[in-house]
């Protein structure tokens, strides 16, 4: 078992605590310990930034396997396929943020970085004890402190340090693959996510054969169309739950067959149940 860098805290039993800091563009936060839960391949429309407190996590990201241990920072960029699971039976404990692109861009502009470019972190695992402590401290502040001034200060201190020290210019590589068909298919899934869409329908919309579209879609997004559709549905489900809609109404409104269907996918992708996510 990897020892904790925070010896004042005993290894906790498995737990999940999920909440939002609404004043920061509905910033989502997760404090969890997982032993048996395994995240399947999924994506976020936000960044995923956090610190491993105890144990170690293994995850797939950008075509390779990575392992993050206690004291290390983990950064996953929006739209990137990734997974997550424990390295040992003891599991891992971490504190995660899910900040929007625009929130980080706003802070980047305040510290004289390019506020128009999406921040880019080439390495998913960062060894930087000072910044790790700033990120962890911010997480605790947003969990407990009510002072707006205190919360605002630590938000800029932690995310500002992360970007100043570890953000890099993104290398742009020309892609000669025609993305039009995939973009068209994604637009259709976004607009009709509550429907039971077939691959033939997507092929008809894009003018590409079902076989070719399936291969092209997965190559460009990292997910097959049906898995991508689940993520779209979950994104809309989160918004309905945040507005106070019931779980069953949310499930039916977003294309899931019933409440258990939504709950199963929500737990698998988000790591929490709809009931734990709802305010």
Q: What would your notes on this structure say?
A:
- The chain has 279 residues and is an alpha+beta fold.
- It is 42% helix and 20% strand.
- It is built from ten helices and nine strands.
- Strands 1, 2, 3, 4, 5, 6, 7, 8 and 9 form a nine-stranded antiparallel beta sheet that branches.
- α8 packs across α9.
- The longest helix is centred in the middle third of the chain and has 19 residues, at 148-166.
- 32% of the residues are buried.
- Residues 1-12 and 173-177 have low confidence and may be disordered.
How many whole angstroms does the radius of gyration measure? 19 Å
Shape: globular
Major sheet summary line: 9 strands, antiparallel
Low-confidence stretches: 1-12, 173-177
Order of helices and strands: EEEEEEEEHEHHHHHHHHH
Structural class: alpha+beta
Total of helices: 10
Helix content: 40-55%
Q: What number is the mean pLDDT? A: 89
β-sheet strand percentage: 15-25%
Compute the separation of the termini in Å: 35 Å
Q: Count the strands?
A: 9
Task: Please provide a brief summary of the model.
With 279 residues, this protein is of the alpha+beta class.
Core attributes:
279 residues; alpha+beta; disordered N terminus; 20% strand
Topology:
Blueprint: E1 15-21, E2 27-34, E3 39-42, E4 48-61, E5 64-69, E6 73-76, E7 82-86, E8 92-98, H1 101-110, E9 125-126, H2 129-144, H3 148-166, H4 180-191, H5 199-206, H6 210-221, H7 225-242, H8 247-253, H9 259-270, H10 274-277
Antiparallel strand pairs: 1-2, 2-8, 3-7, 4-5, 4-6, 4-7, 4-8, 6-9
